[in-house]
Specification:
By secondary structure, this protein is α/β, with parallel strands linked by helices. The chain has two domains: 53-187 and 277-350, Alpha/Beta hydrolase fold, catalytic domain (Rossmann fold, 3-Layer(aba) Sandwich), CATH 3.40.50; 189-246, no CATH class. The chain contains eleven helices and eight strands. It has helices at 2-36, 130-144, 158-170, 186-197, 203-214, 221-235, 246-254, 257-263, 305-314, 329-332, 334-350; strands at 53-60, 63-72, 79-83, 107-112, 151-156, 176-180, 293-298, 318-323. The protein has an eight-stranded mixed sheet, with helices on both faces. Helix 3 (158-170) links the parallel strand 5 (151-156) and strand 6. The radius of gyration is 25 Å and the shape is globular. It holds the Pfam family Abhydrolase_1. It comes from Psychroflexus sediminis. InterPro entries: AB_hydrolase_1, AB_hydrolase_fold, AB_hydrolase_sf, Peptidase_S33, Pro_imino_pep. This is Proline iminopeptidase.
């Protein structure tokens, strides 16, 4: 009996020892899998000591200036350059990308265009043209080493205009194009605002806005108050103003009003005739774009979602995703927004798009 007990105890210790070794082996395998990814590894890179920030020199007809970029993550196969809105906005509008793209190991790059908050500000209106901004994007691309095998360009709002213009000139440099919350025609944008969105406002509010606009009294604090409380919370970001995220608050705080008014006008309720973008329209050129393209619209956007769906059928290789959000749908419908981006980038990367 004593011998049997000793044998039983020995077998138990042997089993425990094997289990412990298997457990350690599994833990080691997990640790190796976790550390195998180089997504967060900046070691040996030129921007390691700056945490991914690079101030890139841009040559212009008025001299050389620097623009701000910040690389997030490290994936040489999938690199997304972000073009912010405005004009004169900042990369802060993409503040919650950090909550979604790193888990998918998609590299993305913040970038403030010339005359935006974190970049140089020559404050020269002769530089505020779509043609000059396109050349700026091309210089940024070259400096960052982006190319046709890894370069995805995402433009939101005014950034969508810039992205379309870039693709129409330099699409051979692109692997994928994402147009977020921007139609291909400012006249169509204005028409939608005036004929569809405007009538949705309470009539007394709409009349007051129209009266102020007729007088060109855009500096009137009442004008901004009406837009912020009755229009922006419905079509820019569908949350009460006090719940707007800090990154969006910073976007508004850091917005350059001079370039914004010069190119876009004083509000998001359409682009005024005096603004330089008032007649911008590339609808009839969409068919020239052969790069895989995602049109990312929103049900409550200032941009007509049906028009954005149509845009996806005009390009040679398009897809559309319509969120239930608004102009900043990365915040008010992030699940649909980021699922659309992630699926698109990965589908293009693996050749299934």
């Amino acid at each position: 009996m004593k011998t049997q007990v000793l044998c039983f105890i020995s077998l138990c210790f042997l089993a425990l020892s094997c289990a412990d070794k298997n457990s350690q082996s599994a833990e080691t395998e997990i640790e190796e899998n976790v550390t195998a990814s180089s997504y967060f590894d900046y070691s040996g890179s030129d921007d390691q000591w700056t945490g991914g920030v690079r101030m890139i020199p841009i040559e212009t007809p008025k001299g050389t200036f620097k623009v701000y970029t910040k690389r997030m993550g490290n994936n040489p196969k999938m690199r997304v350059l972000l073009l912010h809105g405005g004009p004169g906005g900042t990369h802060e509008q993409f503040g919650n990308f950090e909550g979604y793209l790193p888990d998918e190991e998609i590299e993305y790059i913040y970038y403030d265009q010339l005359d935006s908050y974190y970049s140089d500000k020559p404050n020269d209106p002769s530089l505020w043209t779509t043609e000059r901004f396109v050349e700026e994007v091309e210089q940024v691309r070259q400096a960052l080493g982006l190319h046709k095998d890894n370069f995805y360009l995402l433009g939101q709002s005014w950034g969508g205009i810039l992205a379309l213009e870039y693709a129409l000139k330099y699409q051979d440099n692109l692997k994928g194009l994402i147009i977020s919350n921007m139609v291909a025609s400012v006249p169509e944008y204005n028409k939608y605002a005036q004929e569809v969105l405007g009538p949705q406002l309470p009539q007394e509010i709409l009349k007051e806005i129209q009266h102020i606009e007729a007088d060109k009294d855009y500096a009137n604090p009442r004008y901004e108050e009406l837009l912020m409380t009755h229009f922006y919370t419905e079509h820019i970001l569908r949350l009460p103003l006090e719940k707007w995220p800090k990154s969006i608050q910073l976007l508004f705080e850091h917005l350059n009003p001079e370039i914004y008014v010069y190119m876009q006008g004083p509000s998001e309720f359409g682009i005024i005739e005096e603004a330089t973008l008032s007649d911008w329209d590339v609808s009839d050129r969409l068919k020239e774009i052969k790069t895989p393209t995602l049109m990312l619209g929103a049900k409550h956007d200032t941009m007509d979602p049906e028009y954005m769906e149509w845009m996806a059928t005009e390009v040679q290789n398009g897809r559309s995703v319509i969120t239930n959000g608004s102009h900043a749908s990365q915040f008010d419908d992030p699940d649909t927004y980021f699922d659309g981006i992630i699926s698109f980038v990965k589908d293009v990367d693996n050749g299934s798009f």
